[in-house]
Design goal:
With about 1100 residues, the protein is α/β, with parallel strands linked by helices. About 40% of the residues lie in helices and about 20% in strands. The strands form seven sheets. Strands 14-13-10-11-12-15-16 form a seven-stranded antiparallel β-sheet, sandwiched between helices. It has a seven-stranded mixed β-sheet with strand order 17-18-21-20-19-22-23, sandwiched between helices. The radius of gyration is 28 Å and the shape is globular. The two termini are about 50 Å apart.
Length: about 1100
């Protein structure tokens, strides 16, 4: 049946900010869907609060509302836009929950809006655990023994019936939030309590644990004519008990016989029919008992899921795009497959290679959290690699992770043989953790039998044997040494060994290995990802490397540019950099230059098959990138868009003769190297905080005494403030050196005078080498000392004098000229006691580029790409700064609810996973929107709890007065209470945690407090503050840990009380810029 003509306008819900378990896979799906529906001539309206994604670009949809993804916003947009249909299946759990809640208010009937993609019935049937269990019983499929509970007494009754261990799963949540495994009554009570709090309908399901069973997922699509196709089968390497998002996964399934696979296939088709998803994709998860082959159904997602992005990238089948077309009435046999151009979408993909996905964790950011993986997801990103065999893909995957490893060990980073053994080894094998992979290697080297490793890990012996083959080959290479024969050399490359590993094992240099390899004629060939095992010729070039004879790369002689991506998402380097890479591809297309993307991240738009002219799905290492450059011989390579990843390769690539376009690597060095940077600022007559450099603790002590405490210490060359700390005295300094000098052994530690209580600003600018235009100035809400990626900021600045703004503008232009910047540049300024200081300069795209581009309505990354190709800003029509007549507020979103025991307080090390944007004429209202979008539900009445250290008391007083005037009750601990009472602010006294009960945490637990302001300092109050802040996170009570943050929240609540929030599309705001 062709597309529906009765629908004209479709409203799509996005997933909001990037959080753990809901990352940019949903932006990738949403962007694809918007594109597909616009192609079909529908008017597309979008709601999404995330500025960092391509999805919220004004070109993606006809109207883009960068507003909080909440029921209130949805109702306002429906009233204003009157869409015909609502599509909620592309924005992860956030969009589903928002749509279901909105449907309950009756708004959809009132304005005659149809929900497409999945009906309310089928969503409920898959999400509500009880309805799902009944549906499975009906079609004769087994699911684990389970029961439901809505209070703790029921929890106890159900637990006795099922028996331990028990898995606790809240209904309607994402990524296992609030869930976990309980081994006894006490643990089940604790988990169930947290789960009931986290669930949308205060219901938890307790189910019998199938820990240690093998886990598989199938990605399925069905249309309303009841055609069903299986897109991709995925096998989890880790057994049940580890969330699929935290498990290494492999496609296609490796360890099932054809008969067993058919059983899963039939079951998943029966499930999608029974649940009734008839216009789109679903993901079904199974567990299989390795002892006897028993199969049970774990769950089904009635929407495009996290695995859909992986399945799309692994097969080249664009699930989200096709799901969107099915939602408007097409059937699978009417939609052509873009990759082959010949087959239709009802033709099941089959693949003749192996795909491995490995999650990327950032436990190093949260030293207090235990590195243990459970049913609640903790990874922040993932990398995918493709090879002809599991061994090759596995080793390529490890080197794509960017954790400093060149493959599965053998790279000089393994501990000495025999140093990891006994209890430690057993614990690391039997308890899933982010390093378990490498412990399996040490166990194999230690001579532990595969059967024993299998008993401890539950990882299928097939995978363990593959790993053993890699270890065995490593031994052969070491024995052969410098005189490695050709066939062994070739075998090593087929097993995925990198030149770096081979150099380490044979005690040669990487350059020598490379030369020998080329002399022997061992070079990679490129194979196409073609959805149909090479039966049809693929029309969209999408490649992976392997060591065989036939090369399928179609090399053109057009002018072409390679863009290096950012690799896997992690805290400190997220989707913002991917956004810049995508804009670079768009710009090259507009300029008629062939664009070639190199990246290893399956979640993003940059690795979509139609973003660039060619895609190489490869690790971003010197060896892998040079192979592509040698094959393609490009006009230039762009390194300034992918964050730190490509920058770290820049010098090596340049030495190898690769043409780098844009700002030169020498200029990048002048900004990164302390001495060169200092010399440049002196030459230009600009100020920077006093600083020094130290190679040992003794030197550091001397430098710190000369400058005067407090000082900021950090290792050189890091992104996202890794191992950065504000140090107030000698003891702090010594502790830092014991922990952090490992952060960079051959690199010194940098020491700067810390600008206490300074205003901090971020400035993004674009330059063509001659002329520089400021894209945007952002004033941080939090004072200096909080990482710029975690600080909320406002564009344009709201409290900075024109004199200082002019000073910063001149400084920016002078630095850009001196560094000969071609492209983008970011500078951080601090203003202290009326003086402007330069904190740092990054001559590359920064993480605020997407936010600034959306605020001013100018695609900076796209223009920067054209500048690199030789255009001037005048030719591009960018002649003057745009200062919007409205406020844009960026707020960071933190992952603290995922990590127990971590104090949710902000500092110089970046901890946020994503960001949101609030826009309004009124600054308070813009802050309010950003807070709501970030999940902080601001109260308009009730009690505010205030507890601050002495230096913050004056600042807290003005805030307390405002809250008192707005009719809030103020609760405080003794010190703060006395101070406020003396200054005529009535307070309610409450005990602090260390002063006995009932104390403030009890008040939080009993719902007596609606907002918390708490700044922590010394160790005793630190513990108190920590208890309060953790309680705030657990019970989702908005809190601030800085007085500046509270002041902003106060202005937001004032705006809320004055009038409700309005909604307005980004296109309407941009029109105001033009006339403003």
């Amino acid at each position: 049946m062709p597309k529906r003509k009765d629908i004209k306008k479709i409203l799509i819900l996005g997933a909001g900010p990037i959080i753990i378990s809901q990352a940019c896979e949903f932006d990738y799906s949403g962007t694809q869907a918007c594109k597909a529906l616009k192609e079909e001539g529908y008017e597309v309206i979008l709601i999404n609060s995330n500025p960092a994604t391509i999805m919220t670009d004004p070109e993606t949809a006809d109207k883009v509302y960068i507003e909080p993804v909440t029921v209130e916003t949805l109702i306002k947009v429906i009233e204003k836009e009157r869409p015909c249909a609502l599509l909620p299946t592309l924005g992860g759990q956030t969009a589903l929950n928002t749509a279901i809640e909105a449907a309950k208010t009756g708004i959809l009937e009132r304005y005659n809006v149809e929900m497409i993609g999945a009906s309310v019935e089928s969503i409920n049937k898959a999400e509500d655990r009880e309805l799902f269990r009944n549906a499975m019983n009906k079609i004769g499929l087994k699911i684990p023994k389970s029961g439901f509970a809505t209070n703790l007494q029921e929890v106890e009754e159900v637990s006795k019936r099922i028996g331990f261990p028990i898995i606790v799963r809240p209904s309607f949540t994402l990524g296992g939030t609030g869930g976990g495994v309980a081994y006894n009554m006490e643990e089940v009570a604790l988990l169930a309590k947290a789960g009931l709090d986290a669930s949308l309908i205060t219901q938890v399901m307790l189910e019998e644990s199938v820990l240690g069973w093998k886990e598989y997922e199938l990605e399925v699509m069905r249309d309303h004519a009841d055609n069903v196709v299986i897109i991709c089968s995925i096998e989890n390497v880790d057994p049940m008990g580890v969330h699929t998002g935290d498990s290494i996964t492999v496609a296609p399934i490796q360890t099932l016989s054809d008969k067993e696979y058919q059983k899963l296939r039939d079951a998943s088709i029966a499930i999608i029919r029974e649940i009734g998803v008839d216009t789109g994709g679903s993901n079904v998860q199974f567990a299989v008992n390795p002892e006897n082959g028993d199969m049970i159904v774990v769950e089904m997602n009635p929407r495009v899921s996290r695995s859909s992005a992986l399945a799309s990238k692994a097969t080249g089948f664009p699930i989200a795009k096709i799901a969107a077309k099915l939602a408007v009435g097409y059937t699978l046999d009417e939609i052509p497959n873009d990759i082959t151009g010949k087959t239709l979408a009802c033709f099941e993909p089959s693949i003749d290679y192996c795909v491995v996905k490995i999650p990327r964790w950032t436990f190093e950011k949260f030293p207090e959290a235990q590195d243990i993986l459970t049913t609640s997801m903790k990874s922040v990103g993932e990398t995918m690699s493709i090879g002809r065999t599991f061994k090759e893909a596995f080793q390529k995957g490890i080197r794509s992770l960017e954790i400093g490893r060149a493959g599965f060990g053998g790279d000089g980073k393994d501990p000495l043989p025999g140093s990891v053994a006994g209890n430690e080894l057993e614990y690391k094998l039997s308890t899933p953790n982010s390093q378990r992979l490498f412990y399996i290697k040490y166990a194999i080297e230690h001579g532990m039998p595969i059967t024993t490793i299998y008993e401890m890990t539950g990882i299928d012996p097939w995978f363990l044997n593959q790993m053993k083959q890699i270890v065995d080959l490593e031994k052969q290479i070491t024995l052969a040494g410098k005189d490695m024969p050709r066939d062994l050399f070739e075998k090593a490359k087929k097993y995925g060994f990198s030149d770096k590993q081979l150099a380490h094992l044979t005690r040669l240099t990487e350059k020598q290995i490379e030369q020998t390899r080329k002399d022997l004629g061992i070079v990679p060939v490129y194979k196409l990802v073609d959805t149909c095992a090479a039966e049809f010729r693929a029309a969209t070039p999408y490649y992976y490397s392997t060591y065989e004879t036939e090369c399928e790369a179609r090399v053109s002689d057009k002018k072409k540019v390679i863009i290096l991506g950012g690799g896997p998402n992690r805290i400190g380097q997220g989707i913002e950099f991917d956004y810049c890479c995508v804009h670079a591809a768009f710009a090259l297309k507009e300029e008629g230059v062939e664009s070639i993307m190199v990246n290893s991240n399956p979640e993003t738009v940059s690795t979509d098959y139609d973003t660039s002219d060619k895609l190489y799905f490869e690790p971003l290492t010197r060896e892998d990138v040079l192979h592509i450059v040698e094959k393609e011989k490009p006009y230039g390579v762009i390194v300034q868009f992918g964050g730190q990843t490509p920058l770290n390769l820049a010098t090596d690539l340049q030495k190898a003769g690769v043409p780098i376009i844009g700002t030169s690597p020498e200029s990048i060095d002048r900004a990164e190297d302390r001495d060169l940077f200092q010399a440049m600022l002196c030459k230009l007559g600009l100020l920077q905080p006093e600083n020094g450099i130290a190679y040992s603790y003794e030197e550091a002590g001397k430098v710190a005494r000369d400058i005067g405490y407090p000082v900021m210490v950090r290792p050189s060359f890091v992104l996202g403030g890794r191992a950065m700390k504000i140090v107030y005295d000698e003891n702090d300094l010594e502790e830092y050196f014991n922990l952090a000098v490992q952060a960079s052994p051959d690199k010194p530690v940098l020491i700067d005078k810390f600008l206490e209580e300074a205003f901090e600003l971020d400035v993004d600018a674009i330059s063509d080498g001659e002329k520089t235009i400021i894209g945007g100035m952002m004033e941080h809400i939090e004072e200096a000392g909080i990482h710029s990626g975690d600080s909320a900021c406002v564009l344009p600045p709201y409290s900075i004098s024109q004199k200082h703004i002019d000073e910063m503008t001149l400084a920016t232009k002078a630095i850009a000229k001196e560094l000969k910047v071609k492209g983008l540049m970011n500078i951080q300024f601090g203003i202290m006691k009326g003086k402007v200081y330069i904190i740092e300069v990054n001559p590359r795209a920064s993480r605020t580029i997407p936010f600034v581009s959306k605020a001013i309505g100018i695609p900076l990354a796209k223009l920067a790409t054209k500048v690199m190709l030789g255009k001037t800003l005048d030719e591009l029509g960018l002649t003057k700064e745009v200062i919007p007549p409205y406020y844009c507020v960026k707020e960071a979103v933190m992952p603290f609810d995922r990590f127990d025991n971590v104090d949710p307080v902000l500092g110089p090390e970046m901890k946020s996973t994503g960001e949101v944007m609030g826009i309004d004429k009124d600054l308070g209202a813009a802050v309010a929107k950003a807070q709501f979008a970030a999940g902080q539900k601001l109260p308009t009445q009730g009690t505010v709890f205030i507890s601050v250290q002495d230096k913050d008391k004056m600042a807290a007083l003005t805030v307390a007065k405002s809250f008192h005037e707005m009719g809030f009750t103020i609760m405080a601990t003794r010190g703060t209470s006395l101070f406020l009472e003396e200054n005529d602010v009535p307070t309610k006294l409450v005990k602090k945690v260390s002063a006995g009960r009932p104390h403030v945490v009890d008040a939080v637990t009993n719902n007596e407090i609606q907002l918390i302001l708490n700044t922590g300092a010394s160790s005793q109050t630190k513990r108190d503050g920590y208890e309060i802040r953790r309680a705030a996170i657990k019970y989702k009570i908005p809190y601030a840990t800085t007085t500046d943050g509270t002041r902003a929240i106060c202005s937001a609540i004032q705006a809320l009380k004055k009038e409700g929030l309005s909604v307005k599309s980004i296109q309407e705001y941009h029109r105001e810029n033009k006339h403003g």
